[in-house]
Specification:
By secondary structure, the chain is of the alpha/beta class. The chain is built from 2 helices and 8 strands. It holds the Pfam family Glyoxalase_6.
Length: about 130
């Protein structure tokens, strides 16, 4: 069987506050709002790539990073390339992110968005 045409158009994050989380990423990344169906859904448009959407889940529970037994594990995370780590971390924190307690690598910083989703800021390989 030949592979049919498949195009990834976006990533969807669950949250119990669509407006708050979408505004966090809109400010952090500087992306434009593409769809606004508050309170249930919002989508940000990425320049030249897949978008990022936010979906209401009233039973949402944030993941724990790193997860222990009987804790909600991270299901996915976003990797965000930065050119300088310290200013990027400071900006993310100003936007509302929290630095995770556990940092597994020197050239990566794990942060938590306002809904508790981990995301990584990383430097280009040298």
């Amino acid at each position: 069987m030949d592979r049919p045409s498949l195009t990834l158009t976006g990533i969807v994050l669950d949250t119990d506050d669509v407006e708050m989380l979408s505004e966090f990423y809109r400010r952090l990344l500087g992306w434009e709002l593409d769809q606004d169906e508050l309170p249930d859904w919002r989508k940000l448009r990425a320049p030249g790539g897949a978008g990022l959407s936010f979906q209401l889940d009233e039973r949402y529970r944030p993941p724990v990073w790193p997860a222990g037994d009987d804790q909600t594990p991270m299901q996915l995370h976003l990797d965000i390339l930065v050119t300088e780590m310290a200013p990027a971390v400071a900006w993310a924190q100003e936007c509302g992110a929290a630095l995770a307690d556990f940092q597994p690598q020197d050239d990566v910083r794990v942060l938590l968005d306002p809904s508790g989703h981990p995301f990584c800021l990383y430097l280009p390989e040298t």
